[in-house]
Design brief:
The chain is of the alpha/beta class. 33% of the residues lie in helices and 28% in strands. The chain has three domains: 105 residues, Alpha-D-Glucose-1,6-Bisphosphate, Chain A, domain 4, CATH 3.30.530; 189 residues, 3-Layer(aba) Sandwich (Rossmann fold); 147 residues, Rossmann fold (3-Layer(aba) Sandwich). It contains 13 helices and 21 strands. Strands 13-12-14-15-16-20-21 form a seven-stranded mixed β-sheet, sandwiched between helices. A six-stranded antiparallel β-sheet has the order 1-6-5-4-3-2. Helix 4 packs across helix 5, helix 6 packs across helix 7 and helix 12 packs across helix 13.
Length: 473
């Protein structure tokens, strides 16, 4: 275990500095901290100066312990798992030193070395390896917080059942930084480390880039999260919800809830939001929906004032929000601050429980999503999964969502297919995955061989920081 340190000095007393920690614009200047309430369990984000090139590393976690005016302990999961402690010390009249100590395990050290451009030796193994490509950093990191846990839990269950051919399966994790080119490079690294199958649990833009870059390689790619489809094949399997099913299923319930039919399309400027908006333009008018505006913003946008003003001027009843991760959280918080949630509902198909926790209970009014899984699903499979998850990773582990729980399911689908095929050879495993019914915590998922996924979808409304089902579709 390595300990990293950083410090800042602030012109204020320890009690004042402690009281302003994470308070937001104009006051959250201590390591750019954001936290709505400094109490155990509260989500917190820190931007720490640990890098030489692009400045700061964003640490995501929850507050574990608080000593008034003296100490804040943060249990964090991204971009590595560990513990960070902030200590507040008076160093003179009206001046405070804030010292940060962050624990860095072997995986975290390797991540930071690669981030800084240092070579990291590839460790060989005689055991089968499964790759997981996710967003440990960048705007997509909010919905990736539980993905590592889900892959780890699933493989522990797989290995308890004998693994593959009597050998334990090892997990290798890559970080795309929410950037397609970085994702393609990380996928090549995972392949070099012996991963014959890579689960892609990040944006569609990264999945497309990885699929193209590995087009001539015998590696199976499994897209775990919601997507637009269209890239299944011999060595390609796309799980997750399809946007056409999400929009078609949610359109009626949303218009009834809003008492209106006017839609504004807003999201990030990359392939999944553009494709989802195209689906909305096809699906909504036949069921009475009217599109009154559309605007996209680049990944990493933090100021949505002009966009929200455009939504307000349009008199929209519903905003279709295709922002992801940190952008989705910032957009929804600013909608609430503007007061637009009082007269315009939001449907955010990629919204998940981890992102909602970062929005905070006050900012989620009017927010809805549509997906094949929500943490509050009341069935035996999901109840058992939640119990095992909390027992394994503790009370401060991030909530599960369709974006992270799908990783757990993808591991088990892959393993089931590998046992059917009696090999982990990519083409044989893919063939076994393409057709079949799989009983999973979300229910039955059927892959029909033509690249389509059939599953029950749910429209859910945010109630505080929880999602409550309001309709099946």
């Amino acid at each position: 275990m390595v300990t990293l340190t950083a410090q800042e000095e602030v012109t204020a007393s320890p009690s004042v500095v402690f009281g302003l920690f994470g308070a937001g614009t104009g006051a959250g200047w201590i390591f750019d901290a954001h936290c709505d309430d400094v109490v155990p369990g509260a989500p917190v984000t820190l931007r720490v100066p640990l890098e030489r090139s692009d400045g700061r590393v964003e640490l995501l976690g929850r507050i574990g312990c608080v000593e008034q005016n003296r100490l804040i302990e943060i249990v964090h999961t991204q971009p590595w798992q560990g513990r960070t402690v902030l200590r507040f010390s008076g160093i003179g009249p009206n001046r405070t030193q804030v010292r940060l100590q962050a624990e860095l395990d072997d995986q975290g050290l390797a991540w930071l070395m690669r981030r800084r451009g240092h070579p990291v030796a590839i460790e060989r193994s005689g055991n089968p390896r499964l790759g997981l490509l996710t967003s440990k950093s960048g705007p997509g990191n909010l919905f990736a917080m539980a993905s590592d846990h889900m892959a780890t839990l699933a493989l522990e269950e797989v290995n308890a059942e004998g693994g593959l051919r009597g050998r334990p399966v090892e997990l290798q994790v890559g970080d795309d930084r929410t950037d397609p080119e970085e994702g393609a490079a990380e996928a090549r690294r995972l392949m070099a480390e012996g991963c014959r199958t890579i689960l892609v649990a990040t944006t569609s833009a990264t999945y497309v880039a990885v699929s193209q870059r590995l087009a001539d390689d015998e590696v199976l790619l499994v897209q775990t999260v919601m997507n637009e489809g269209g890239d299944s094949g011999r060595l390609r399997v796309q799980l997750g919800e399809r946007h056409v099913d999400q929009i078609r299923g949610a359109a009626g319930p949303m218009m009834r809830a809003a008492g209106g039919r006017r839609w504004f399309l807003a999201g990030n400027d990359y392939c999944w939001p553009r494709s989802t908006n195209a689906v909305a333009r096809d699906v909504l008018p036949p069921v009475g929906g009217q599109i009154v505006g559309e605007r996209l913003a680049s990944l990493g946008t933090t100021d949505f004032a002009s966009l929200i003003e455009a939504i307000d001027r349009s008199k929209a009843d519903i905003t279709l929000s295709t922002f992801v991760g940190a952008d989705a959280a910032a957009f929804q918080r600013q909608l609430h601050e503007y007061g637009l949630h009082d007269r315009c509902l939001t449907l955010a198909p990629a919204m998940d429980e981890s992102t909602i926790a970062r929005i905070g209970a006050a900012g989620t009014a009017g927010l809805h999503t549509v997906s094949g899984y929500i943490e509050s699903l009341d069935n035996v499979g999901n109840t058992g999964l939640l119990e095992r998850y909390r027992e394994r990773f503790g009370r401060w582990a991030p909530p599960l969502s369709t974006l992270s729980e799908s990783v757990f399911e993808a591991v088990h689908i892959w393993w089931t297919a590998a046992r059917r095929a009696r090999t982990d050879e990519p083409a044989a495993v893919a063939a076994a995955m393409h057709n079949g019914n799989f009983e999973l915590p979300r229910g039955t998922v059927r892959l029909d061989g033509d690249g389509d996924v059939h599953q029950q979808l749910y429209v859910a409304e945010a109630v505080g920081t929880d999602l409550r089902m309001v309709a099946r579709c």
